[in-house]
Design brief:
Chain B is an all-alpha fold and about 650 residues long. Helix content of chain B is about 75%, strand content about 5%. In chain B, helix 14 packs antiparallel against helix 19. Classes of the chains: A mainly alpha (about 160), B mainly alpha (about 650), C mainly alpha (about 100).
Chain lengths: ~160, ~650, ~100
């Protein structure tokens, strides 16, 4: 629960901070808390993958892009005019989901069992091998695409 | 033959149409068609007459034309002695006139039309004679009036002629109005039956009230006054002399004007059984007409006018004869019979003279006796017949009327008739002397007329001599005419020699006076010595002026002007007003259309545009805005689906 | 024993926050971050249920791995695009990229 609380704070600050770099750092916080939750749920492999990829690679990527695009600082500059509506929508979504959860799962409990990483590997390369391959190709496409897109026109 | 008598009027009618459509292309411009048709009818008429003479009973046949409720219109023929006699008269005179016109109208620009009209007229008159019902009679009557108008105004380039035609038409029309009402009265009184025989029957047996009979008779007589030129509607006949002479001979001497007399004769049952005042009225009118016309004839310079007034006078004789009741029936109609021949003769002979000297006026004639012998002798025969000189036809018929008047106690009529006879002899002598004796006073080169003109003259002269013997009761001669034409019992008046002698003396006296006055030419016409009387006569008793000022002008100018004003202001005003209202209404509708309808249409367009203007803001191009809508939609759907 | 609704609620919070960020932030990079947040929320959900249901295949976790992979790819592409836009328009504010406007 504590973890959840921290994560929540992180998320809020992410979406409301005036400083983009701060926002990025808050993202780190939120993602880290998510990893912590994974750990608490005895999903270790996922937790480490999370930390590794998200916090390591993606956040770095975001930071680099922030730098390259000269992100501005200041409140007005960061939030657009439809904050009010957006807040409403977000709250509506949250309320809906909460109600749903409450209705469906009031008393259930999770019996946490440790997850064997070998098991994950097993099922990944047996049962889900096809999606695995597809995702690989997806990554390849994304890689190539990113390079193509970001290339300067007519150079190297 | 009698059963086919319906051919008699039909042949000239067919000739009319043939000449109308093909005349211009036929040889001699269609005249032979007309002459042939009348000739055949003439032969048929003689046949019919012979059959009647052999005591063939009267024939009536009809076909139904159409039926409206209880009113039945038929086309029929009723051939008895009277009809047979009339057939003969009409076809004979018509034939003579048509042959005569070959020469007289030669080279006329409307020759074909003339012949067509002659045929149509003959057909109409024959139809009047043969008709067995009043409606058919009326049709023929009116067609005759129309033909008369056309023929009088034949040379309409001269306004005098067309005026004369109009005058004739309107005057006879004025008489036709009471005539029409008379037909109505009698038809209704007889139970919507127009058949003459039926009406006569009902009248004889007292089935129709005297009042109705009197009204009907008087009204019918109105028509006769107009058509037969009796006082006061006689004024058209002298002016009608503006037409060509053959026309005058046919229509205004022998046939059309006789139609009025024929009508009275035909409907005699009605006249006799009406109140006695009707016949008295007829007698009075006839007497007045007789005398005033004769006096007018005395002072005329135009030879045709002399004859015209003479016709009026003689027609009055016939009417007077009929007014004497049953006894005078035969006498009056016999005079019609003989008069037709010698009057037609006189007119045609006068036409021959006019044709030769190119003038109507006796003051420009004279001494034609030697230059136109045939014309001279035939004219003299006609004049003698007219004056009542025995043994010519006129004597027998006129004398019969005069004697019947005396012997039936109608002394007034007798007196007037007697005086008129004297005057008649006088003016005819005057005419003869002025035209044929003395020295020629004109400028043309007169010579005898061609055969086409003289042949009819001779024929008619022959008839003028012999026709009288058909009813001459003197010397115990058979008088078949009475057997043919009679009302009630066929009686022969015993011939009164003394009376006849008195009549003859009267006529001779008139002749003598005329002879003395006109034997030698005088520069100044002796009749002018009558002074103021002459003036009155010259102005025709101012009757024409009275009619013009009292009747024609007010109608022509005041009534027409009033009617015109009414039409312009009131009627046109109403019409224009209606137009204005309609326009105002239309402008209202237009307004409504523009404002309301167009407004609605424009408004719809505007609304669409307005809405579009609002909705376009949705296309902000802002992706996040779109995302908002997306998520909001998701939430909404979720809510809906879970709640449902 | 963890009550189930806890991770689920946490997931919901993260998701809602992500939505708010997507809709309300001007900087494109921040929008992308918010998207990451949402994806993570989903992952939490998956893992939680996977553990709850004691899936033998561990399908939830496997799926989570896939999602992470895809997310990574997507961020890569997304950022490439953002840089390209920045090059062309000198801005990365999404509400200034509105050529589809009326």
């Amino acid at each position: 629960m504590v973890v959840a609380a921290v994560g929540t704070v992180g998320a809020f600050r992410l979406v409301t901070s005036k400083n983009v770099v701060h926002a990025a750092l808050y993202l780190v916080v939120a993602l880290g808390m998510v990893g912590a939750v994974y750990l608490l749920l005895a999903a270790e492999f996922v937790a480490w993958v999370q930390i590794l990829i998200y916090v390591g690679a993606i956040v770095v990527l975001l930071l680099f892009s922030l730098m390259l695009t000269k992100a501005p600082i200041g409140r007005e500059a960061l939030d657009n005019q439809q904050r009010g509506v957006a807040a409403l929508v977000a709250l509506a979504v949250f309320a809906g989901l909460l109600l749903l959860i409450r209705d469906t799962f009031p008393d259930q409990r999770i019996e946490v069992q440790a997850t064997n990483t070998a098991d994950i590997g097993n099922s990944l390369f047996r049962g889900f091998v096809l999606p695995f391959e597809v995702v690989s190709i997806l990554l390849l496409a994304a890689l190539v695409g990113a390079v193509v897109i970001a290339r300067r026109d007519g150079s190297e | 033959m009698i059963r086919g008598a319906w051919l008699i009027p039909l042949l000239p009618l067919a000739a009319f149409f043939l000449i109308l459509f093909f005349g211009k292309r036929s040889p001699r411009h269609g005249a032979p068609i007309g002459i042939a048709a009348v000739a055949v009818s003439w032969v048929l008429s003689i046949g019919v007459l012979l059959q009647i003479a052999q005591d063939h009973p009267a024939v009536e046949r009809s076909i139904e034309w159409f039926n409206i409720g209880s009113f039945r219109l038929e086309l029929g023929m009723a051939v008895d002695g009277l009809a047979a006699v009339m057939f003969f008269v009409v076809t004979t005179v018509s034939l003579c006139v048509q042959v005569y016109s070959l020469g007289y109208m030669h080279g006329d620009s409307r020759f074909t039309w003339f012949y067509a009209q002659l045929s149509l007229f003959t057909a109409a008159m024959l139809n009047v004679v043969i008709a067995n019902n009043l409606f058919q009679l009326l049709v023929g009557w009116e067609v005759m009036g129309l033909c008369s108008y056309f023929l009088i105004g034949h040379w309409w380039e001269d306004k005098v002629n067309s005026d004369a035609g109009i005058k004739a038409f309107i005057t006879t029309r004025t008489g036709d109005i009471p005539f029409l009402f008379g037909i109505f009265v009698l038809t209704v009184a007889a139970g919507f039956d127009t058949n003459i025989g039926h009406i006569a029957d009902l009248a004889e047996h007292g089935q129709i009230s005297t009042v109705l009979l009197t009204a009907g008779a008087l009204l019918l007589f109105g028509g006769a006054i107009g058509k037969s030129a009796q006082f006061p509607l006689h004024v058209w006949l002298p002016d009608a002399m503006a037409g060509p002479t053959p026309v005058s001979a046919l229509i205004h001497a022998a046939t059309m004007v006789a139609a009025g007399v024929y009508l009275v004769g035909r409907m005699f049952a009605v006249f006799v059984h009406a109140s006695a005042g009707v016949l008295q009225f007829v007698a009075v009118i006839a007497s007045i007409t007789m005398l005033i016309a004769a006096l007018l004839a005395m002072i005329q310079d135009d030879i045709k006018r002399v004859l015209a007034y003479s016709t009026v006078s003689q027609l009055a004789y016939m009417m007077a004869g009929l007014s004497l009741g049953e006894a005078g029936y035969t006498a009056g109609l016999f005079h019609l019979f003989t008069h037709a021949f010698f009057k037609a003769l006189l007119f045609l002979a006068a036409g021959s003279v006019i044709h030769a000297v190119h003038s109507n006026y006796m003051s420009e004639m004279g001494g034609l006796r030697s230059k136109m012998p045939v014309t001279f002798w035939t004219f003299v025969i006609g004049a003698a017949a007219l004056s009542g000189i025995p043994p010519f036809a006129g004597f027998w018929s006129k004398d019969e009327i005069i004697s019947t008047a005396f012997h039936s106690g109608h002394y007034f009529v007798w007196a007037v008739a007697f005086v008129t006879a004297i005057v008649t002899a006088f003016y005819m002598t005057r005419a003869v002397l002025l035209t044929f004796f003395g020295d020629y006073r004109g400028t043309a080169h007169p010579h005898e007329a061609p055969v086409s003109i003289t042949a009819p003259l001779v024929l008619l002269a022959f008839l003028s001599v012999t026709a009288g013997f058909l009813n001459a009761t003197a010397f115990n001669l058979p008088a078949p005419f009475t057997a043919w034409v009679h009302f009630g019992a066929a009686e022969h008046e015993p011939f009164n020699y003394g009376f006849a002698a008195v009549s003859f003396l009267g006529a001779a006296g008139g002749l003598a006076v005329g002879y003395r006055l006109y034997r030698g030419w005088r520069e100044r016409d002796p009749v002018r010595n009558l002074g103021p009387v002459y003036t009155v006569l010259e102005r025709k008793y101012y009757l024409d002026d009275i009619y013009m000022g009292g009747v024609v002008r007010p109608i022509q100018y005041r009534l027409s002007a009033a009617a015109n004003w009414f039409n312009q202001r009131v009627l046109d005003g109403i019409v224009d007003g209606a137009a204005v209202v309609t326009r105002w209404f239309a402008s209202l509708v237009n307004l409504f259309d523009q404002k309301a309808v167009d407004g609605a249409v424009n408004g719809a367009a505007g609304l669409t545009g307005f809405t579009g203007g609002i909705l376009r803001y949705l296309q902000s191009g802002n992706v996040q805005r779109y995302a908002v809508f997306l998520f909001a939609g998701v939430v909404a759907l979720a809510v809906i689906f879970t709640r449902l | 024993m963890i009550r189930l609704w806890l991770p689920l609620t946490f997931s919901a919070i993260l998701f809602a926050a992500g939505i708010y960020g997507v809709l309300a932030r001007r900087n494109a990079v921040l929008v992308l971050m918010s998207i990451e947040l949402m994806l993570n929320a989903v992952n939490v959900n998956l893992v939680a249920f996977s553990q709850y249901l004691k899936d033998a295949l561990q399908a939830g976790q496997i799926f989570t791995l896939f999602v992470i992979t895809v997310a990574a790819a997507e961020v890569g592409i997304g950022l490439a695009i953002v840089i390209l836009i920045f090059r062309n328009r000198e801005t990365v504010n999404v509400d200034e990229v509105n050529l589809l406007k009326w």
